[in-house]
Amino acid sequence: xxxxxxxxxxxxxxxxxxxxxxxxxxxxxxxxxxxxxxxxxxxxxxxxxxxxxxxxxxxxxxxxxxxxxxxxxxxxxxxxxxxxxxxxxxxxxxxxxxxxxxxxxxxxxxxxxxxxxxxxxxxxxxxxxxxxxxxxxxxxxxxxxxxxxxxxxxxxxxxxxxxxxxxxxxxxxxxxxxxxxxxxxxxxxxxxxxxxxxxxxxxxxxxxxxxxxxxxxxxxxxxxxxxxxxx
Length: 231
Hints:
By secondary structure, this protein is of the alpha/beta class. Helices cover 45% and strands 21% of the residues. The chain has helices at 2-21, 30-47, 66-77, 94-101, 114-123, 139-143, 157-162, 166-179, 195-205, and strands spanning 82-87, 105-111, 129-133, 149-155, 180-190, 217-221, 224-230.
């Protein structure tokens, strides 16, 4: 049933976006993002400056992270770390914002681009953030298949993966769902402000994922939206 829902959603999405976005499959490939971040690193090196924070979609502040607060508080009450996976981190400072916002947060920032991870390791300073080169489509090969995170966060990653097709993006969503502990939060920020369309996709991808689809919610913030679900 989940496969049928994804196939139907994929056809609708492709028709709706083909004329607007054209063939942009490269946005879904690690090679594209490595070339992007490698070129940015060359510019930064030539200017002699540290790699600046570069945000896709939007720069999220503490106020935008309320969906994570109750889970973080529950972990703090137990005296446990609030483990967060920030997938497709690039050189964003979102991981550091999360670490600074929640006292017990420990954030694993991952990206398929070696250049992005190298820049982040060199120029980001939070002691409770770690950076690691991992393709978001293969997170379970890096972290195992057992639930180990209290939140999985992305900002623009699902948008990029959808250029490779609904099943590509769904593979990430489903792996993220499996890595969440009970009570864990799935959090995705997107420039897809047609919330009905994105909720349909996420609901199809999360079908049979321990109640995640039933808890899906969206909030609009001008030119971007935040999508959340609780396991």
